[in-house]
Structures are given as C-alpha cells and as structure tokens.
Write a structure and sequence with these properties.
about 0% strand; about 200 residues; mainly alpha; disordered N terminus; single chain; 5 helices
C-alpha cells in the first residue's frame, strides 16, 4: 500500500506542473484568439466607414457633375456643381486608405495569433494607443470641418453682398458648407467609434 501511495504522489508531482502549463497555454490561446477576432471586427468596421465616405464622395462627384452640366449657363449652379465635384473627389480618394485594399490589416490580425504573454499584452496596448491617436486626428478633422462650414457660409454671404455679385463664388460657398457639414457628421461618428475600439482593446487585458 505504501508503495502504491508513493507512486500516486510521484504521479501527481509530475502531472500537476504539466496540467498547470497546459492551462496557461490554453488561456494564452484564448487571449490571442480574442485579440485577433476583435481586430478583424475593427477592420470590418473601418471598411464600412470607408465605404460610407467613398459613397458620399462618389455621390458628390455625380450630383455635382449633373448640377454643373445642367446648370452650366447659370454661374451659381456651375460654381456649386464644380465645388461639389472637387470636394467629392478628395473625399473619395481619402476613403481608399480605409478599405484595406491590400489586406494588410487582415494579415496583421492573423500574425497576432502567434503572440504570447508580455508580447501580446504590449501589442494590445499599442493597438489601443493607435485607436486613441486616430480619435485625436478625427477630433482635429471635426474642428476643420467646422472651419469649412463657416468659411463656406462666409464666402456665400460675401459673394452675395458684393457690389458686383459673384454667383459662382456664392454657389461654391454653399457647396463647401454642405460638404463640411457632411464631413462633420462622418468625423464625429468615426471619432466615437475609434474611442470605443480603443476601450475594447484595453478591456482584453
């Protein structure tokens, strides 16, 4: 009996560390999987945001082109149309950077599955900092959007009050203000989402 008891004790001594190690590895596997899954979710959200901006930009190009074409004899409509086309083209170009066309974000998320321990934790914190940095940029952009709206309104008012009224400049001012308003709504929405994404990453720790 004593021999059996000693053998059982020896077996437990050998097995328990192995069991503990397996549990640690299992926890790490779950942690990196949560990180990768969350990052892929964030990538999907960012692509959706990019598609919204792309749609807004292309719609502005189309509608502005139609307005400029149909109303080309009217300086007001020509200015408004061409202004809308210009702003729309810029917005559409900026949106391409959000679509992960090269798949870099997806590959990076897969690479994160190889991380363990302190390396994974530091990576998670770095990703959260990136989201908060993006939110800061978006907050600055929102301030610029307010500037665009204000400037557009002032241009329209000044053009209307000039002794020699400038309808083309007035139309452009209205287009600028309208684009700034649309961008303000977009930037504020994405700013909130970026902050939430940063919080989601920190919550994994």
């Amino acid at each position: 009996m004593r021999a059996h008891a000693l053998a059982l004790v020896a077996l437990l001594v050998v097995a328990l560390p192995g069991t503990a190690s397996a549990q640690v590895l299992a926890r790490e596997d779950r942690a990196v999987e949560r990180l990768a899954t969350l990052r892929l979710s964030h990538r999907s959200e960012r692509i959706d945001e990019g598609l919204v901006l792309l749609t807004f930009g292309l719609a502005s190009v189309v509608l502005g082109g139609v307005a400029a074409g149909v109303g080309h004899d009217d300086p007001w409509w020509l200015g408004a149309g061409l202004g809308t086309v210009g702003w729309g083209a810029v917005n559409a170009a900026f949106s391409l950077g959000m679509l992960d066309l090269g798949g870099g974000l997806a590959r990076s998320s897969d690479d994160d599955r190889l991380l363990r321990g302190a390396t994974r934790e530091e990576r998670t914190r770095a990703l959260a900092r990136d989201q908060y940095a993006s939110a800061t940029v978006l907050a600055v952009n929102a301030g610029l959007d307010v500037f665009y709206i204000t400037t557009g309104v002032l241009l329209a008012v000044i053009a209307n009050l000039l002794d020699t009224r400038e309808p083309a400049l007035e139309g452009y001012g209205v287009a600028m203000a309208a684009q700034g308003l649309g961008l303000l709504a977009f930037d504020l929405t994405v700013w909130v989402r970026s902050m939430e994404r940063g919080d989601d990453l920190l919550a994994l720790e």
